[in-house]
Every structure is written in structure tokens, then in C-alpha cells.
């Protein structure tokens, strides 16, 4: 029991630290990537001075995220006079907390054997092994949609409780947009559920460890390339990122549903958005990019075509899986930021029409074709 608490405690600390790091780092990536795309230098003014010297550590602008956090913490917390104080205070946490909880069911590595990793503790662990996943739940994918649905309530609650017409309009926009695109997301992953026969994210990743035709990795994007595009589009809209940022369109609604928020309460909304980018990257990696897997890799190393085997120690396998997962997530996050600085904002009627009249029919078509192919394959097997 103590061993289980220790390992899962380390998992929780790792997940929180990773998400917080991604949330901070992506604020810098957004600035620098936008600068590269616009032929600018980007953030390079914040620095740390080495004590008793004139040496300034700029570090490519990495300290801007730290400066933003300090600024949010030090700002005065203004509140409108006519607010609903309880809903106003709770709303940022209803948006922020579920974003963190989603990661609890996402596998970020394979099987961990602490006894092999730390031989001196092998007797204490008694041969126990642990999947690198905080909560190994059979209904993992359902938990993802349950938690992500809670953020809709937080956004609408923030808009309503602020007693501001712009905030209320932003909250209404957020609710209708997020509900519309969450439906599309759900339909796109149904095709994967039909193929893999489970909603357990860990089982989905394990089934993506093989190859297709002996060459292609058996990733979800190979089986469902169309669903992958639909899922990523809907996920970006669910996270309210450009070109789908109508709930917080500054030119129309000042700042949307969090117009009346300041200081760290506003910081929670903004930080939740950047952590949401990482969560979208982690989900897309898990569902469509094989998770922590590399082609031909297993818990003992690499088994290449032709029977060639490259053995790896358990520690090397664990480190490789953790690194592969993080690199894939970062690549998807960078692609989301690339889209953010490439496309113009839609009108709000176009956003909803795009969901209901374009993405939803395509998602249903993809599900129908997948169901027919799976059924015909199973019928042929019998």
C-alpha cells in the first residue's frame, strides 16, 4: 500500500509539474513562434541580472512567462459592484481544475518496474509493476469528456456572474460553441472505439504499438486520418483558440466572459487556455500518434523487421517513452500555435455553421464508413 501511494504520488507531482511547465513554456513559444512567422525578434526584454554584476541573462525571452506570473500575482483584484460573489469566485477554478484532471487518465509511459529501476529497493517493492498513468480506468475516454464538459459551466458561470453584458454575451458564445464542438469531438473518437474495442486510453495506446503492412506504425492516424483532422479542428475550437476565439474576441467583446476579471483570477483563465493546448496535444498523441510508442519499440527495446533486436535497459526504455511522449505533445502544441497565427478569425455565425453544417456531417460520415468497414472485416473473419 505504501509503495502504491509513493509511486502514484510521484506520478501526480510529475503530471502537475509537466502541465505547469507546458503552460508557462507555451506562452513563450507563442510569442517566439509568432515572431518567427512575422519576421520579428519576439520577446527579449525580460531578464535576470547576476548579483553584483552587470551581466543580464535574457535566455531568448524565457523570463517573460515568469514576469507575467509575478505581474498577475501582484495586481490588485478589482471586482464589479453588482457581481454574484460566489459564482464569480468559483468560475475560474471550475475552468482551471478540470483541465488538470483530464491528464489523470492519459498514459504518459509504458510499464514501470521500480525494482528494476532501483535495484536496492527491489525487495521493498516486491516485484510490483505500475502503468505510467495516474488513474488506470476502463472508462478513461469517458472521463476525459466528463471533465472537459465542466469547463463549459465555468465559462458560462464567469460570464453570468460578472453582471456585464459583454461578459454575458461571451459566456453564451462560449457555451454554445464548446457544446457544438464537443459533440463533433465525441463522434470522431467513436471510430477509434469501434476499431480498438475499448474506451481505456492505456489499452488504445498498447494496440498502437504494432505496425500496419509491416512498415507503417499502427497509430490511430493511420487507421483514421480523416477523424484525426476533425478531432484536432474540434479540439482547437473547444479550447477557444483562433480562428475560433469568438467567446473572447477583443475587438467585439473586450475580453469576453472574463472581461470583469483581473489579477490572478484572469491569470487562471489564461493559464487554463495554455494548459488546454498541452492537453489537446496529449490527447491527440494518445489517440492518433501512438502515445509514448515508437515504431518497433517494446518494453525490452526495439524489434526491427527481419528479427533484429536491440536490447535496452529498463531505465532507458522508461526514459525513452517519457521523452517520446513529450516530444509528440510539443509538436502538436506547436502546430496549434502555427494555426493560431495563420488563419483569420471567423464570424460567430460561421463558427456555429462550421460545426453543425460541415464538421458534424463529416464526423457522422466517417463513423458510418468506419462501422461498415469494421463490420465487413469481422464478418469476413468468421
Task: Write a brief structural summary.
The chain is mostly helical and 382 residues long.
Uncertain segments: none
Q: What pattern of helices and strands is seen along the backbone?
A: HEEHHEHHEHHHEEHHHHEEEHH
Q: Total number of β-strand segments? A: 9
Global morphology? globular
Which percent range describes the beta-strand content? Answer: 5-15%
- How are the strands of the largest sheet arranged? 7-8-9
Overall average pLDDT = 84
End-to-end gap: 45 Å
Overall structural class, as computed from helix and strand content, comes to mainly alpha
Q: How many helical elements?
A: 14
Describe the sheet with the most strands: 3 strands, antiparallel
Residue share in helices? 55-70%
Query: How much is the radius of gyration in Å?
Result: 23 Å
Number of structural units classed as domains: 1
Molecular structure report:
The protein contains 14 helices and 9 strands. The protein has 382 residues and is mainly alpha-helical. The protein has one domain (84-381). Helix 1 crosses helix 12 (263-288), helix 2 (63-74) crosses helix 12 (263-288) and helix 10 packs antiparallel against helix 14. The longest helix is centred in the N-terminal third of the chain and has 36 residues, at 2-37.
How would the blueprint of this fold be written?
Elements: H1 2-37, E1 48-49, E2 56-57, H2 63-74, H3 85-102, E3 111-112, H4 114-117, H5 122-125, E4 130-131, H6 140-161, H7 165-196, H8 201-207, E5 211-212, E6 216-217, H9 220-223, H10 225-238, H11 250-253, H12 263-288, E7 297-298, E8 301-303, E9 309-311, H13 314-340, H14 348-381
Antiparallel strand pairs: 1-2, 3-4, 5-6, 7-8, 8-9
Helix pairs in contact: 1-12, 1-13, 2-12, 3-6, 3-12, 6-7, 7-10, 7-14, 10-12, 10-14, 12-13
Amino acid at each position: 500500500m505504501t509503495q502504491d501511494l509513493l509511486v502514484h504520488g510521484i506520478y501526480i507531482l510529475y503530471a502537475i509539474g509537466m502541465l505547469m511547465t507546458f503552460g508557462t513554456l507555451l506562452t513563450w513559444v507563442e510569442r517566439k513562434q509568432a515572431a518567427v512567422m512575422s519576421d520579428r525578434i519576439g520577446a527579449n526584454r525580460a531578464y535576470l541580472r547576476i548579483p553584483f554584476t552587470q551581466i543580464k541573462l535574457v535566455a531568448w525571452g524565457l523570463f517573460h512567462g515568469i514576469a507575467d506570473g509575478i505581474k498577475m500575482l501582484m495586481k490588485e483584484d478589482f471586482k464589479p459592484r453588482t457581481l454574484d460573489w460566489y459564482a464569480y469566485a468559483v468560475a475560474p477554478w471550475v475552468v482551471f481544475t478540470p483541465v488538470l484532471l483530464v491528464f489523470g487518465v492519459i498514459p504518459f509511459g509504458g510499464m514501470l518496474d521500480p525494482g528494476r529501476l532501483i535495484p536496492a529497493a527491489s525487495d521493498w517493492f516486491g516485484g510490483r509493476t505500475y502503468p505510467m498513468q495516474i488513474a488506470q480506468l476502463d472508462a478513461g475516454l469517458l472521463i476525459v469528456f466528463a471533465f472537459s464538459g465542466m469547463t463549459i459551466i465555468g465559462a458560462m458561470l464567469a460570464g453570468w456572474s460578472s453582471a456585464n453584458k459583454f461578459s454575458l454575451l461571451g459566456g453564451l458564445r462560449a457555451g454554445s460553441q464548446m457544446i457544438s464542438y464537443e459533440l463533433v469531438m465525441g463522434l470522431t473518437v467513436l471510430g477509434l472505439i469501434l476499431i480498438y474495442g475499448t474506451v481505456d486510453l492505456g489499452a488504445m495506446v498498447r494496440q498502437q504499438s504494432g505496425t500496419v503492412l509491416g512498415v507503417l506504425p499502427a497509430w490511430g492516424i493511420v487507421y483514421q486520418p480523416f477523424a484525426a483532422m476533425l478531432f484536432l479542428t474540434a479540439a482547437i475550437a473547444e479550447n477557444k483558440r483562433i480562428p475560433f476565439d469568438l467567446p473572447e474576441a477583443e475587438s467585439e467583446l473586450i475580453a469576453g466572459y472574463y472581461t470583469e476579471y483581473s489579477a490572478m483570477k484572469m491569470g487562471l483563465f489564461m493559464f487554463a487556455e495554455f494548459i488546454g493546448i498541452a492537453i489537446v496535444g496529449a490527447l491527440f498523441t494518445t489517440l492518433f500518434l501512438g502515445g509514448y510508442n515508437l515504431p518497433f519499440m517494446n518494453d525490452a527495446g526495439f524489434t526491427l523487421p527481419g528479427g533484429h533486436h536491440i536490447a535496452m535497459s529498463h531505465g532507458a526504455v522508461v526514459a525513452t517513452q517519457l521523452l517520446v511522449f513529450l516530444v509528440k505533445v510539443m509538436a502538436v502544441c506547436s502546430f496549434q500555435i502555427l494555426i493560431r497565427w495563420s488563419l483569420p478569425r471567423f464570424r460567430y455565425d460561421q463558427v456555429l455553421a462550421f460545426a453543425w453544417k460541415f464538421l458534424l456531417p463529416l464526423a457522422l460520415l466517417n463513423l458510418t464508413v468506419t462501422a461498415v468497414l469494421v463490420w465487413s472485416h469481422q464478418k469476413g473473419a468468421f
